[in-house]
Amino acid sequence: MKMNKLIFPLMIALAATLATTGCRKGTPRTTPMPGEAQTEIATPGGNNTFPPGNIIDTGQIPGVTPGPIAQNQSWTLDDVTQDRAALADDTIHFAFDSAVIRDSEQSKLIIVSESLKSDPNAKLLIEGNCDERGTEEYNRALGERRALAAREVLAKLGVDPMRVRTISYGKDKPADSGHDEAAWSKNRRDDFVLCHPKTGA
Amino acid sequence: MKKKFNNSNFFASLCGNKIQRNPHPGPLPSDGRGRIVRRLMQNPATGFAGWSCGKMEPAAGCPLSHPMGEGQGEGFPRAKFFLTIFFIACVLNFSRAQTEIQISREGIFAQKPIPVALDGFTGEAAEVLKFDLYVQGFSFVTPDAAQYLIHGSDSGNVTGTVTDKLARKVILSRSYNGASLRRQAHAFADDIVLAIAGKPGIAQLRGTTARIAYKSQPSGIGPGEIYVADFDGFTPTNVTEDHSIVAKPAWVPGKMALYYTSYARGNPDIFYHSLTSGQRRVIANYSGLNTSAAVSPDGSKVAMVLDKTGSVNIWVCNADGSNLKHITSGDEDSSPTWSPNGDWICFATKHNARRQLAKVPAGGGEVQYLNTAGTPNPTEPDWSPDGKWIAFTCQFSHEFDICVLPADATSAPTVLVPGENPSWAPNSRTLVFNHRAAGYQQALSVLDVFTKQYKDCRRATGSDSQPAWAR
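ok -> structure tokens follow
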């Protein structure tokens, strides 16, 4: 009897559920697809196209307050011409996943500092790079830390850090496109680019 | 007994709310309705629990008549009827709660796919259904082995039914018209997921196919463009044409707008780009690095990586670049991501000579380190929209793996599959990520974290990476 009491309401419930939700025969419900929805993100009439990016607005960014040991914000790459050959032999290299400048690389940094001292108008771009082992954004930060490390050594050698810009290419600009330690050791590097103010600037 | 029912789902299920709000893991794949009912019949103890529950106060103002549509009966039969529904709801909920308690963390990520049989679809519609269902935890088997039968056709329009074999009833019957067969098939896939799993599918968002943004590089390194495509990689469209290095696109939640890094002007700068108007604006172009933009859930703030003080840290500014604030001061900070309530920023850093994930109040404050034991070199965290998980990349020797960590850090992370750059879909269960393909290039893939099933997206150019799922 107890069982019956239990099963009876259950049957009613199942029947009710079936009656309301189940076994719809005949014409299925139709969902119209909004064909126009795609144009909401596209040029009118276009199918899945985007308007080309406009000319970049270079307007002043409000609220910029330089930090205590701020990077140079007074000159940009547009203000200079780049001489990649001048310091091409002075590229410094790093250990895996490290931004520490090894003693063996110090002599090259002295050469870089001397060339800046001999030409007071010259500026310097330090390009930090990584091997391909490491995630993309991590490597972009690691390359920047490598460039910053060289900038700090140059400052100690008497170079005004405001003459220096840093840039990281992460793993996007390998010197050697191989996939072994021989290539990787060449790719973990800082390249030095001597910059000269554009005439008339 | 009462304690067992002490959760918010209880009244939700009483209300006949079809979209389950139970916490992760959602409905277990093997937990089809048929099975629950069967268990109930076999188990008098469970039945008893149901009755005692039925005697509880049916409070919370639940419109009990709602799920049944217009109430017809009166008086006693009606009361009996509702009592029965109440009883079923209790038992359903009870079974679910029980199952969840028994599942260990490892178990959550080792679920069996739901076996379905797919029949009657051809060509593109079949392809779409297979992709969409596979990456949402379904497997394709013979009708004999299937729990659900999906039958239909794509001649002219997509039309189809889903039959629950155990319950012996049709739980979905629908046809679609308009747009394209592809869109119709995506819509049917979403309806199938809702009918079977009780949760919205991933294939559509705000009336169109769900989209991802990513970077694509023809040669795998160097210059590339930011692309937007359907989440399965179809209809790829480049949104930049700068022929420069680009990185890390991030969607503005709810809008057709991106932030991304571009070297278009020589330096890595962060751009805002409206996809509706084409308007672009540089919001961060400080000397040095400007990258890894992450937009706050309400779209009002952007977290990013800058080194304008000479140290690589996390900074936060307003959507237009104003009101810049220095948030962290670690030595090796990278990859910010927002908690869904906007209160926290999770990022990768180094602490006590170890790489770790950490979180910091979005307005700045004390840094808390997360337990990422067993997953060395964690980077690229992405906080799930439901707040419960943080997906990230770890690195054993030279290979990368996708991992998932409970955001409350109550247990150690789980390693899922090889890959990098995880980004959550709105359902907090599916990820898009990239992994190494032939020729040292990268391919995008969509992953169901609970069954670890994943499938590659269609490639845009040579190498696709850093995907971001539009939310």
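The domain at 82-197 of chain A is CATH 3.30.1330.60 (60s Ribosomal Protein L30; Chain: A;).
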